[in-house]
Amino acid sequence: MDGGCECGRVRYSLNGDSIFINCCHCRQCQKLSGSAFAMNAMVERDRVEIVAGAEATEPARGGGARCAECGTILWGTHRMFGDTILFLRVGTLDEGERLTPDAHFFVRSKHPWVRVPEGVPAFETLPGPGDPPLFGPEQAARVDAARVAESGTPG
Known about the structure:
alpha+beta
């Protein structure tokens, strides 16, 4: 899949499937997206290739990247996963509608008119230690491999 910023200066390719897709309803994601939620595709950094406008990217708040020209946030990182896992903003994909959330986070601040589909896991905040795993063995192995690449040791 391909994507880019609003002005078109930065373009990227997502090579392969994402690990996990979440819909985050936290207040920070609401403010940063200017919407009721942000959809994020969790993916290894080495699966995202900037194909145009690399010189136009600048650091975004929280370790991600954005376009220096139009300010579009392309992806972020999360302290729990380090810099080798990106949370790609699904809205920056040319065909983001092809992706659907595997889970919804921070539903405590979800707008009341947003409906979480039946059967899709939803969490008041982030999933905790007592919650069931969010992804299977293949996805967990990808996360572990990214952590090893970053720190030399698994999670």
